[in-house]
Amino acid sequence: MVQHRDVKKVVLAYSGGLDTSIILKWLQTEYGAEVVTFTADLGQGEELEPARKKAEMMGVKEIYINDVREEFCRDFVFPMFRANAVYEGTYLLGTSIARPLISKRLVEIAHETGADAIAHGATGKGNDQVRFELSAYALDPDIKVIAPWREWEFKSRTDLVDFAEKNQILVSKDKRGEAPFSVDANLLHSSSEGKVLEDPDVAPPAYVFQRSVSPEDAPDKATTITIGFAKGDPVSIDGKTMKPHELLAALNDLGRDNGIGRLDLVENRFVGMKSRGIYETPGGTILLVAHRAIESITLDRGAGHLKDELMPRYAELIYNGFWFSPEREMLQAAIDHSQQHVEGTVTLKLYKGNVIVEGRASPKSLYSDALVTFEDDHGAYDQKDAAGFIRLNALRLRTLAKRDGR
């Protein structure tokens, strides 16, 4: 635990919501510290100016509100998608990949403002506390980190509301009771968990979903799109070149309208417990299918299979908060090297929750009509060669069979 006397100035990851507003006041009263607020525009779709006004009302002099959507997509989301990263087979890591960027900015702002510490609003039961703090320590080994949920004495929502009222923090009517579930959102996804979602055997209420129409309500006519790739990254939709954050936003709109990207998952948290989450990743779901499709014709078999072997480890590193670790950077270097010739176009059909590959083309394609045709291949492949290939591969199997009397 950080000693109060050692902290004079703190940079707080601040959303402007009730919890982080209470944390702001708590830092001012319990630590007697000057608070600098940082609010990241990660494409969560919320108006951020109210956060500035609330911080000003609470006496904050240094307020940072940064649009980091482009950096988020370019330097975090797209590198992750080059690896086709999914955690435990299905989760596209939407929350996990945002945390190292937030931590990076918190540490940078601490250096800019001469702050002694950073603070976050993650609870002591979740993964985010680990992600925030591992990232911060990797970037500044001497930074102090304050995690109020691990320190304060508040036990319930009522305790928080009482503290807010005693300290003139505005509490809206909908915040006085227990929230039906908690939400985290950014340009890549939205995540909902807790309360009405805690029983994994009960289907989520329809109102939980915020990023997509239900597949049943999606249009009866399919939407066809073509995504262009260069060095493993998406660069265009239907021939129109876009910046990374613009492209992901456009894919989100397409996915939303076609009921794509819903996931109901029970996952294994790094801290040891299982949790149930409802995720919506419309654009990311489309992108994963498209990227694997363009890789299918541009990656060598050995490189592609090795990537698939490395991917679970890479995904786990991101999930557990080790984005800034040397092993993640080593894996990233190998993954990025594999993407040098991953370019071309993929045509997809989007229909009622499905992403269907209709075609893929690349000037760097390894697919050869001459080799796979059932017609005369003009000597491109001598089928007689397969006999020796099979005999050599069968040698150890035949030897085993003779020994075992089969």
Automatic annotation (TrEMBL):
L-aspartate binds at T123, N127, D128. This is Argininosuccinate synthase. SUPFAM superfamilies: Adenine nucleotide alpha hydrolases-like, Argininosuccinate synthetase, C-terminal domain. HAMAP family: Arg_succ_synth_type1. The keyword Thylakoid does not apply. It catalyses: L-citrulline + L-aspartate + ATP = 2-(N(omega)-L-arginino)succinate + AMP + diphosphate + H(+). GO terms for molecular function: argininosuccinate synthase activity; ATP binding. Its main location: cytoplasm. Its EC number is 6.3.4.5. It comes from the Bacteria.
